[in-house]
Amino acid sequence: MMRHHFKHRVALIAALAASVIGSSAHAGGRGGYVHQGAQISELQQRLEEVSPRSEEIQISDGALAKVISAANEVEISLAMIARKQARSREVKDFAREMLEAHTQGNIRLSALLRRLRIKAQPTRASAMIAGHSSIIAAYLQKQPAEKFDLTYMAIQVRMHAHALRMLDEQAIPRVKNQALKQELQRIRDEAASHMKRAQAIQATLAKGQER
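Structure tokens predicted for DUF4142 domain-containing protein:
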């Protein structure tokens, strides 16, 4: 039952792309955005309805590490887009920080796994996260210039909130190797710092639009 529950919960992280885009589209209030949001919300529902009994998943340290690595890759891809398309200097700086932090995070994680002789193990969950990176990226790239910064920051707040929940409730309590557990705790603390800054930037941008 615990393994089934873990698989279902991590699958919801993969559905983050759909939930973020669907909520952003709904908030836009435009026909095109709402239509796209409805399409991706349907995809999210299909992902969330994946039966926990349909596939066993080994909750190994390698499997957990692969999920973290896949999440880092999503952040890297979005940061590269934001560095080019963001208009606000603060958003550009945040995107640069995300690019550097998550690139270094994957380098550090890979080095640790080699030292511990732990092999990252791809799972259905990590594959779904990687697959949905392109969905978020495509949506972000299509944002009009005046909406891009706020959309990117909304995505960042939502993604970091999901990451914190996954780390607190699933990954950190269940990782077996103590060195890897310490690294996940460091990642957790960094994610909390990133989310706090993302929320502050999001609030600043929202106030600017109200004027």
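DSSP finds eight helices and no strands in the chain.
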